[in-house]
Amino acid sequence: MMTPDNVTEAALNFDTSSVVFPAGTKLREIERIVILETLRQKNFNRTHTARALGIGIRTLQRKLKRYGASDWGLKAKVGGEEGDVNETPSFTN
Asked: pLDDT tens digits for 55-68?
Protein backbone atom coordinates (compact mmCIF):
# COMPACT_ATOMS: atom_id res chain seq x y z
CA MET A 1 0.00 0.00 0.00
CA MET A 2 1.35 3.41 -0.93
CA THR A 3 1.71 5.90 1.90
CA PRO A 4 3.30 9.35 1.91
CA ASP A 5 6.40 7.78 3.49
CA ASN A 6 6.66 5.15 0.72
CA VAL A 7 6.27 7.75 -2.00
CA THR A 8 8.88 10.02 -0.43
CA GLU A 9 11.35 7.15 0.00
CA ALA A 10 10.79 5.97 -3.58
CA ALA A 11 11.22 9.51 -4.91
CA LEU A 12 14.48 9.97 -3.01
CA ASN A 13 15.89 6.67 -4.29
CA PHE A 14 14.73 7.08 -7.90
CA ASP A 15 17.50 7.71 -10.40
CA THR A 16 15.95 10.28 -12.73
CA SER A 17 18.85 10.03 -15.17
CA SER A 18 17.99 6.43 -16.07
CA VAL A 19 14.56 6.93 -17.67
CA VAL A 20 13.26 9.74 -19.84
CA PHE A 21 9.56 10.06 -20.69
CA PRO A 22 8.14 12.87 -22.80
CA ALA A 23 5.93 15.32 -20.90
CA GLY A 24 2.31 14.27 -21.20
CA THR A 25 3.00 10.53 -21.32
CA LYS A 26 0.07 8.75 -19.71
CA LEU A 27 0.83 7.10 -16.38
CA ARG A 28 -0.66 3.81 -17.60
CA GLU A 29 1.85 3.80 -20.47
CA ILE A 30 4.74 4.66 -18.16
CA GLU A 31 3.73 1.79 -15.88
CA ARG A 32 3.58 -0.63 -18.83
CA ILE A 33 7.00 0.39 -20.10
CA VAL A 34 8.65 0.23 -16.68
CA ILE A 35 7.17 -3.19 -15.94
CA LEU A 36 8.15 -4.68 -19.29
CA GLU A 37 11.65 -3.18 -19.20
CA THR A 38 12.20 -4.43 -15.64
CA LEU A 39 10.98 -7.86 -16.71
CA ARG A 40 13.50 -7.86 -19.56
CA GLN A 41 16.32 -6.76 -17.24
CA LYS A 42 15.41 -9.55 -14.80
CA ASN A 43 15.67 -12.13 -17.62
CA PHE A 44 11.88 -12.57 -17.68
CA ASN A 45 11.81 -13.87 -14.10
CA ARG A 46 8.45 -12.68 -12.79
CA THR A 47 9.28 -13.23 -9.12
CA HIS A 48 12.43 -11.09 -9.34
CA THR A 49 10.57 -8.49 -11.38
CA ALA A 50 7.75 -8.21 -8.86
CA ARG A 51 10.26 -7.84 -6.01
CA ALA A 52 12.24 -5.18 -7.88
CA LEU A 53 9.06 -3.21 -8.53
CA GLY A 54 7.75 -3.63 -4.99
CA ILE A 55 4.53 -5.33 -6.09
CA GLY A 56 3.07 -8.78 -5.53
CA ILE A 57 3.51 -11.54 -8.09
CA ARG A 58 -0.28 -11.74 -8.61
CA THR A 59 -0.41 -8.00 -9.30
CA LEU A 60 2.38 -8.40 -11.85
CA GLN A 61 0.58 -11.33 -13.48
CA ARG A 62 -2.65 -9.31 -13.78
CA LYS A 63 -0.81 -6.40 -15.34
CA LEU A 64 1.02 -8.64 -17.81
CA LYS A 65 -2.29 -10.23 -18.79
CA ARG A 66 -3.71 -6.74 -19.37
CA TYR A 67 -0.75 -5.96 -21.65
CA GLY A 68 -1.33 -9.18 -23.61
CA ALA A 69 2.04 -10.62 -22.58
CA SER A 70 1.45 -14.38 -22.80
CA ASP A 71 3.99 -16.89 -21.52
CA TRP A 72 5.16 -17.81 -25.03
CA GLY A 73 5.01 -14.39 -26.64
CA LEU A 74 6.48 -12.44 -23.75
CA LYS A 75 10.07 -12.23 -25.00
CA ALA A 76 8.91 -11.28 -28.48
CA LYS A 77 6.59 -8.63 -27.05
CA VAL A 78 9.36 -6.92 -25.08
CA GLY A 79 12.12 -7.44 -27.59
CA GLY A 80 13.87 -10.49 -26.20
CA GLU A 81 17.39 -10.16 -24.93
CA GLU A 82 18.72 -7.99 -27.72
CA GLY A 83 15.87 -5.50 -28.15
CA ASP A 84 14.01 -2.93 -26.14
CA VAL A 85 10.39 -2.67 -25.16
CA ASN A 86 8.37 -1.63 -28.20
CA GLU A 87 8.05 2.15 -28.46
CA THR A 88 9.97 2.90 -25.29
CA PRO A 89 11.54 6.14 -24.24
CA SER A 90 15.29 6.06 -23.81
CA PHE A 91 16.73 3.95 -20.99
CA THR A 92 20.32 4.52 -19.98
CA ASN A 93 22.59 2.44 -17.77
From this structure: 999 999 999 999 88
